[in-house]
Design brief:
Shape of chain B: globular
Strand content of chain A: 25-35%
Structural class of chain B: mainly alpha
CATH architecture of one domain in chain A: 3-Layer(aba) Sandwich
Oligomer: heterodimer
CATH superfamily of one domain in chain A: P-loop containing nucleotide triphosphate hydrolases
Number of helices of chain A: 10
Distance between the termini of chain A: 35 Å
Largest sheet of chain A: 6 strands, mixed
Number of strands of chain B: 2
Strand order of the largest sheet of chain B: 1-2
Number of helices of chain B: 16
Strand content of chain B: under 5%
Radius of gyration of chain A: 17 Å
Number of strands of chain A: 10
Order of helices and strands of chain A: EEEHEEHEHHHHEHEHEEHH
Distance between the termini of chain B: 26 Å
């Protein structure tokens, strides 16, 4: 397994957000985590990326226990989070944002290649190279966030709600790109409210409810599961 | 965007496209003018002098204080403007710089007397000025690290309160540690920088304040150059990312805590440097010279001037130091005018008089974010 989250417990003060959940991601997979608002999706991402520490449980990445490592140390190992919503640097330009993605890298030639790759995936960003990120639309900011995460050459790319607040057309487009990134060889863990898109694009998925994993299976299994269909796909 | 901003932006765009040699020449002229300022005596320009009336303050001394506070502003700008950390105890580092040079360099300091007795040195002996400088900078730097290490995990207002406490602790220690600092009596005979004797007096003496001004100006120019280099380095990029979004910076691989500590330490050492110049020119330090309100004045310089922009904070430091001296006749109105000016700037131009463009954009973004949040409710 590339990533293992074992019996993770995460608290915000006295409120327990994760009640001992376990998630596994194998190399090359696309795994999604679906659930409603407040189910603990973002908390799981924070625990995995190291933005917040765990009260109990462990994170193992690439065969190494990274539970005690800070977020910046985990990034250096290749565990990279693309945060939800306005997670970009609003005062920086597109190029500067992408530059920050490559902050820990010194291999100039490879960084140039990655610029080309990101601009290839998101031609829109190339057009807006010099634009200040805070002034771009929600969809463009999301593209930038993904592009920035790619600039750090992740082994595992974790995407937190990539479709949040976007128009249906754009959601489709973003997921197409996620699929493309996966085909280029990056393992992906995606957290989504948009269950239909997420499930149809994933190898495996977990269903999260109030801080617990209630169901797991392949994407198509869960798409056909009556209770999932009722709760998350809006079909009886 | 306000009309003023549009206008200043256009002006800046125009300055930006000027050829390098024109800009270099302009800079040279400004620097030359700065060095000439103490002798400024041509009407009507001489009206900016502060010693026109009988109650006025010595012009060169005011200029010296302006430059010392500019050094403070450049240092505090690293902490507030670049790293985005609100430090309300900056006067503590300033005091440490001044006290360091007094404690180790003055023949009448208890510390020097203790060293004299221990090693049987003559009563004339004290640590030479040239060695006091690195001591003062090191003391401020170490204090910055000691203060920062446990407190930089705090954010925003919490950090501000802790640092405010630090500023007070330094002053109270200076007042109460009688057998180290002479307590409220203060320390006299603070050493001056070495220099050739002119007419049987040291080069840097009380009656020639313009020499002190020039010295401070040289130090300021060197520090500005260093601060600019730092701002555009890898460290500067890390600060910028932390300021904009600390979590995002961390998940992009920026070791946030380490860089915040760096900002604190570098800011502190600049504050120490300013304090050292101040203490040395006064040739006397006492705890009441380092009251808490000085910290607020320092923060006001940075915020009013335009945090994040060196030109802005220089202007802030100039206005808040120079104007009260120029208009001494209206002394009883000073706190009132200061208050009104502060409120006016915060309402009309919250990003400061001459902000960095990036900071201005961040302000815009926060405004949009706040409006969106309000609309969601």
């Amino acid at each position: 397994m590339l990533l293992e989250l074992n019996d993770a417990v995460l608290n915000y003060g006295k409120i327990q957000a994760l009640h001992g959940i376990s998630v596994e991601v194998a190399e090359g997979e696309v795994v999604s985590l679906i659930g409603a608002n407040g189910a603990g999706k973002t908390s799981t991402m924070r625990a995995l990326s190291g933005v917040r520490g765990l009260a109990a449980g462990s994170v193992v990445f690439d065969g190494e226990d990274v539970t005690k490592l800070r977020a910046d140390q985990r990034l250096r190992k290749g565990l990279v989070l693309c945060p939800e919503g306005r997670g970009i640097f609003p005062g920086m330009t597109v190029t500067e944002n992408l530059n920050m993605g490559a902050y820990t890298r010194k291999d100039k030639a490879a960084i140039e290649e990655d610029y080309d790759r990101v601009f290839g995936l998101f031609p829109r960003l190339l057009e807006r190279k010099k634009q200040v990120a805070g002034t771009m639309s929600g969809g463009e900011q999301q593209m930038l966030a993904i592009g920035r995460a790619l600039m750090s050459r992740p082994k595992l790319l974790m995407l937190d709600e990539p479709s949040m607040g976007l128009a249906p057309m754009l959601i489709q487009q973003i997921f197409d790109i996620i699929t493309e990134i996966s085909q280029q060889g990056t393992t992906i863990l995606v957290v989504e409210q948009n269950a239909k898109q997420a499930l149809s694009r994933s190898d495996r998925a977990y269903v999260l409810e109030t801080g617990r994993i209630v169901k797991t299976g392949t994407g198509s299994e869960l798409l056909d599961d009556p209770s999932v269909r009722e709760a998350y796909l809006g079909v009886a | 965007m306000s009309i003023i901003t549009q206008y200043t932006n256009r002006l800046r765009d125009r300055l930006d496209v000027l050829p390098t040699w024109v800009r270099a020449l302009g800079l040279l002229l400004v620097v030359a003018l700065a060095f000439y300022l103490p002798y400024l005596n041509v009407l009507p320009f001489a009206y900016i002098r502060t010693d026109l009336s009988a109650t006025g303050t010595d012009w060169a001394s005011v200029l010296f204080l302006v430059v010392v506070y500019m050094i403070v502003a450049v240092g505090l700008n690293v902490v507030i403007g670049l790293a985005g950390l609100l430090d309300l105890g900056y006067v503590g580092f300033y005091a440490l710089g001044a006290y360091s040079v007094a404690l180790f360099g003055s023949t009448s300091s208890p510390v020097v007397e203790a060293i004299q007795n221990k090693f049987g040195l003559s009563e004339e002996w004290a640590v030479p000025f040239a060695i006091c400088v690195p001591i003062a900078i090191a003391m401020a730097l170490i204090a910055g690290v000691i203060l920062g290490a446990p407190t930089l995990r705090l954010r925003g207002d919490y950090l501000a309160i802790v640092t405010m406490g630090f500023g007070e602790i330094i002053r109270i220690c200076a007042r109460n540690l009688d057998n180290v600092t002479n307590g409220a009596a203060g320390i006299t005979n603070v050493p001056v920088p070495p220099g050739p004797e002119v007419d049987g007096r040291p080069f840097f003496n009380v009656s020639e304040p313009e020499r002190w001004y020039w010295l401070a100006l040289v130090v300021l120019i060197i520090l500005i150059w260093m601060a600019r280099r730092l701002e555009h380095s890898r460290v500067g990029r890390a600060w910028l990312a932390i300021r904009e979004d600390e979590d995002a910076a961390a998940i992009m691989g920026v070791a946030a805590f380490k860089y915040k500590l760096w900002a604190f330490a570098i800011g502190a050492s600049l504050g120490g440097m300013a304090g050292l110049l101040f203490g040395s020119k006064q040739q006397y330090v006492e705890p009441n010279g380092f009251m808490l309100n000085l910290s607020f004045l320092f923060v006001a310089m940075v915020v009013i001037g335009g945090s994040g922009n060196i030109l802005g904070v220089l202007i802030g430091a100039f206005l808040l130091t120079y104007l009260p001296e120029r208009f001494r006749e209206f002394q009883e109105w000073r706190p009132f005018a200061f208050g009104v000016a502060l409120v006016a700037v915060m309402i009309l131009r919250p990003q400061g008089l001459v902000p960095s463009r990036r900071r201005a954009r961040e302000f815009e973004d926060r405004k949009v974010e706040a409006e969106e949040a309000a609309a969601d409710v």
